[in-house]
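Please check the following.

. . .
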Amino acid sequence: MEHRIEVVWTCRRCEVGGQDEQEDGAVDPVCWNCGGPVVVTARPTVRLLAEPEAA
């Protein structure tokens, strides 16, 4: 089973939110609408279920 970290955020300027997969901890997410800075509200770990192997 694999895990990945999601970044949940909101943009104060646009009043929109988003969720991105965090590939690199050094890179901050940006708003998909305006491209500006966002406020990170959560960094949950998401479990990925493995695909069943073909018989």
